[in-house]
Amino acid sequence: MAHKWFSATAGKFAFTWARTSVTFDPDISPEGFVERFSKDFESVPIVKNVNLQFMQLLFNETTGTSTTSLGLFNGRDSFAVGGQIGGRLQPLSFWTLTPSFTILNFRYQDALLNASAFAVQATNSGGSVTIGGTTYPIVVTAPGEGPGCARIAGG
Fold it and tell me: 84: buried, middle or exposed (CB in 10 Å: 19+, 13-18, 0-12)?
């Protein structure tokens, strides 16, 4: 690498920023662009590194501009843009801290909410409840088998 203080990543890649499984699914690799600036400090007593990352993550490509054929999205691509500032602190020789602060602005995120992870079928279940002598049905729509469980034609 020509410059240790700068790196740029594009395409589908492993996470380059500090995260937890609560904020990002560890089974999914992000896709987009990440630029990272990092500065090491050897002579500073506690602060050993400060880094800044900018992220542009794409998660749904929608083509066209027709409002009748595309409904809600109208040809807008779904994406997240933001950044992270972090560092490495070493207050004692045996204790290292790596604090970070991340902010992401998700745009047109309804693509995530509208996407069906279980597109093969759906099943209904439920029962009934009686209140004051009147019986009310309870219907719960549950996702069926996902695409990974679907039967392969001829298989």
Answer: buried
Q: Looking at residue 45, what DSSP letter applies?
A: S
* CA-CA-CA-CA torsion sign (115, 102, 107, 11): negative
Q: Count CA atoms within 13 Å of residue 117 on its CB side.
A: 4
Q: Which DSSP category does 155 fall into?
A: -
Q: Which parts of the chain fold into alpha helices (H)?
A: 67-70, 110-114
How large is the greatest C-alpha to C-alpha distance in the chain, in angstroms? 78
Q: Encode pLDDT of 120-142 as tens digits.
A: 445 555 667 777 888 877 766 65
Q: CB within 8 A of 124, min separation 6: which ones? A: 139, 140, 141, 142
Give the other-Cβ count within 10 Å of 38's Cβ.
17
pLDDT > 70 fraction of the chain, expressed in percent and rounded = 65
* 3-class DSSP assignment, residue 116: coil
The residue behind tokens 């207050």 is 91
Q: How far apart are CA 143 and CA 137, in angstroms?
A: 19
pLDDT at 62: 61
